Amino acid sequence: MIDALEKEMKIILSTTNGAGLADEFFLERITQYIRGLITIRDGTSVEFLNLLEELLKRNESFFRINLELEKVYLTFITILKFISLPYLDLKEVNDLIQKNLINGLEIDDFDLFERINAFFIIQPYYKENEVKDSFLKSLKSNLEMLGKEDLTDQKGNTFKNNVKGWLIIFQEFLGQNFGDVSKEVEFLNTNSNVKKLDIDQKIKLKHLLRIYDFLQFTEPLQNLQQREETHVLPKSLKPLYEKKEENKETFIKPQAALIFLANQALKEKYQNYQSSEMFVSMINRKEALKKDSTDFLNLKAPFYHALNTKDAPSVIAILLLLGENGYLKKFFSNDKRYIDFFESYLKRSAETTANGRPLSADDFIKDPVNKVYIGSFIKLMLEKRLGLTKDEAAIVGTELATRVYALGQEKEYQDLAYGDEGSGVFVWNF
Known about the structure:
By secondary structure, this protein is mainly α. It is built from 23 helices and four strands. A hairpin with a 5-residue loop joins strand 1 and strand 2 (158-159).
């Protein structure tokens, strides 16, 4: 359907002028094609967007006396810009976030957060903070209205019920609980301003806060999820993508097997993991550990205590801290408790790698920090000791690999686990 429509659209958008632009059948075909583009992530929408913009310029005098029809076409263009968001330049994306964010949240069956995240995937890693800051500035100055009544904060101050006002109210509610998922849920369920919204407005607010949380509080290594080329760039954009800037390295496709958010099955599994009580507890525990420790080698006692007491959130928090700070190998190297336990375990069990190869205690002693053994130990602890499901354990492994990759160190652990886009399953890779 889309292929046939694409050929048709290229012809009629290049040739249709004047009164033909108001034809109901013509407008319906455009609407139908745009709906199909929502699920296409290969940049096809960029070409269609360019054709529509050229059509408006070509018929400028016609639209000057048909203003209502012009609004229809401008709406088409806005929707296409959101669909094409990963491929737009920074100025265009900031313009969308500042002036049309609510419109983007109103598009049926469209995940705006996913497209914003995809924009980061395509950017060179060294531009991430700059891009994030510019997005936040645009978001915080957005004056689009959400709801019908002014907002009131905890001190009785009033604000306009626009995006800017909602973010001020939300930030005040959060206080110092940065990135606390449970506080976001509490805000949506208990805040007096939220209670005045209808169900559709609440859904928009929920998505708005998700985007804000991602930009404001998510650590850079989480923003770097899946710097794989999940988006196939249009030929016209590839020179931009590959262009060198100053003396910095160009974007290199990583070997780390990261989270394929474009795959619906993987996306749902990861979202379920993120909404779990264990994940929320892990985030809180991780923040506390970061404040209490500057030398991550000092986390050995808390790590083994957490294993002994089956405290999964603390174990995961420590593993992620080690990965994102380049301490994974240092932590387990010459670690008597790890080496003694795993050597003994391998001698008395028929343990295999995740790929089915037998593990040898003799080989382990020669290289205990080899990815195969570190990965096998972590997998064993998550599944057998802490009781995580195979899916949950592999998601944790993927998250750990993501953080190791983001730092750019300990390259042997960068593909510890990954999301298999073909099967929709998270798997270990050793």
